[in-house]
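Protocol step 6 of 9: fold each sequence in the batch and record its structure tokens directly after the sequence line. For illustration, a two-sequence batch is reproduced in full.

Sequence one:
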Amino acid sequence: MNWIEVLGVVAACCTTVSFLPQAIKTIREKDTSAISAAMYTLFTTGTLLWFLYGVFVQNFPIMLANAVTCLLASIILFYKFRYK
């Protein structure tokens, strides 16, 4: 793995892990009043599209990071609509 791939993996880990605190807090408290439904809908769609891009270009770090981020964002979005 060269330094550019390492850079990509580290960046993917940082952005993916950054969603864990929000997802955990949302699941525990079921409070989504401060979360924008429009923003999370667009963001979730974007991560899904990035995942598909990763599939098409066969880039595992992009696929993995965006699959996990999309899952976490989807959970938050689900809670946003479930617990209004």
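Sequence two, same batch, same settings:
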Amino acid sequence: MEKAPLNIGIFNCYPKESRDNFDRSNVGHPHHMYRDFLSRYVPLAHVTVFFLADLEREFPSLAVLDRYDGIIWTGSDLTIYHTDDPRVTRQIDLMKSIYAAGIPCYGSCWGIQMAAVAAGGEVKKNPKGREWGIARGIRRAAPGKESLLLKGKPDTYNGFIMHLDEVTRLPEGATLLAVNDHTHVQALEVRHGKGVFWATQYHPEYNLFEMARLISARAEALVKEGFFTSIEAVRSYADTMHALYRTPGSGHLRRELDVSDDILDAEIREQELRNWIDYLVVTPTP
């Protein structure tokens, strides 16, 4: 598919203490999930992971990043409107430079918020609270039905998700591609400077196994926020997700979790990632 081996950068945007907590809690790292996708879809690609929230690490210069064909932004548990946090502000400044340089980007969760804020948009806490596990009823907006990012997606679909904040004001040059009832901005294209950023609030890189692990690690918060009555109930729900991951053809588990192929089938679930490679990295859109 690719004319030459691609150079792809992955920006892991979690602080080190959060990544260490992932290890203690048996939670998967998002850069591993993106690496797994890339190893399957563009196996010859050269992939480099950068840990942007580690202030003690050397920050990637634009001269270094300009050698990359595309950059992927992972989620993060930082808060993008905390403008007194240098772990946040230097990422925003870097994205502004990337827009100016014209390096194509993809991002999920924190990524969509970065796409908006670095171009002049706004993010705030979602007054509806946490959206977790599965984002239900994501609908392609009219521009999303023509968008190459969402090419091949159903008009209505579900996706994995875990977030508290949302994009509340689109920047100039942004196109809203998908919405749902909980979070108005679920998918977005931002054209700013020379750059194009395709982003989703939901996570095409996740699967049932990885989301079950994340839900288990968020058990206390999910109980405190009223989604479950006990930590045991959270773990039982996560166990059911694990069971369906192992036996995706199980009708009763599908019904119990209310999921179908848009969650279980990687050909549907990862469509946005393939489209980003095909239409924005390998064949840049005009």
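Proceed to step 7 once all outputs are recorded. Observation for sequence two: The chain has a mean pLDDT of 96.
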